[in-house]
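A reminder from the course coordinator: this example appears on the midterm review sheet, so study it carefully.

Given structure:
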């Protein structure tokens, strides 16, 4: 069960599982903490996993005033303080990767390592046009299901559309009792689409792993490679056959890779079939 936690002037909904080294999971556009369910379930046997709803998603309100990525990074740092977490392995997905980058730049002592999934640091013309389409789609689609059917074309692999996975996700989203409003979606989108970190990434000192899906059309691998190239010592890896949300579509592969990275950062041996 989750709970609301007061931090940085806002009540954040937080889900926590497990014991061990701290891991903070930062979601992207629109996604509540439940987007990380496979990590909350699959990694909590060896880590203390924290996931939360960003401002304007799920059960966390979106107060009046400007919404920016630096503000959301400060939210994450304040939330860590409220939870008594001094440092954590931080994993950010999509827009959450921007928050994670900014967290590592603004609060470097909080970040033990970075995993940046489906990341970018400077939008190009294609990206800006895509996000403008999403902006009016949220308001002008003929219905919520139609909006999700169109939006998720950028998010999941063709196999997920073919095998019923996307239909199941849409049904779960429509049944979720804390839907995001079109206005909140647009405000989050505006913050993520306008933010750039590329010129500042050399200032990140935390060990970093950048993961890009081969089939990701929203944040294609060239974006992830540019992020990794700019962060000193960062590793870039392509997840072949995957798209924008590999942690949902291929959770076992994703969990194994990030676990190996975190163990490497901690100076531990990787898990084998015979145990740790």
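Designed residues:
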């Amino acid at each position: 069960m989750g709970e609301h936690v007061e931090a940085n002037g806002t009540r954040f909904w937080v889900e926590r599982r497990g014991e061990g080294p701290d891991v903070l999971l930062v979601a992207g556009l629109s996604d509540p903490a439940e987007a990380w369910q496979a990590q909350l379930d699959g990694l909590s046997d060896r880590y203390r996993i924290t996931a939360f709803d960003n401002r304007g998603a799920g059960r966390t309100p979106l107060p009046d005033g400007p919404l920016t990525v630096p503000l959301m990074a400060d939210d994450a740092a304040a939330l860590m303080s409220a939870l008594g977490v001094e440092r954590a392995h931080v994993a950010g997905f999509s827009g959450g990767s921007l928050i994670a980058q900014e967290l590592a730049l603004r609060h470097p002592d909080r970040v033990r390592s970075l995993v940046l999934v489906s990341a970018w640091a400077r939008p190009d013309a294609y990206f800006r046009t895509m996000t403008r389409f999403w902006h009016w789609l949220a308001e002008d689609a003929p219905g919520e299901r139609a909006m999700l059917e169109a939006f998720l074309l950028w998010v999941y692999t063709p196999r997920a559309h073919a095998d019923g996975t996307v239909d199941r996700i849409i049904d779960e989203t429509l049944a979720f009792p804390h839907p995001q409003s079109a206005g909140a979606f647009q405000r989050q989108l505006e913050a993520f689409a306008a933010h750039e970190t590329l010129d500042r990434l050399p200032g990140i000192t935390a060990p970093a792993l950048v993961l890009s899906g081969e089939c990701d059309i929203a944040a294609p691998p060239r974006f992830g490679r540019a992020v990794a190239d700019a962060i000193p010592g960062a590793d870039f890896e392509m997840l072949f056959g995957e798209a924008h949300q590999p942690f949902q579509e291929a959770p076992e592969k994703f969990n194994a890779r990030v676990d190996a990275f975190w163990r490497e950062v901690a100076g531990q041996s990787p898990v084998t079939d015979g145990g740790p």
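The radius of gyration is 17 Å. Strands lie at 3-7, 10-17, 22-26, 48-52, 88-93, 111-117, 208-213, 235-239.
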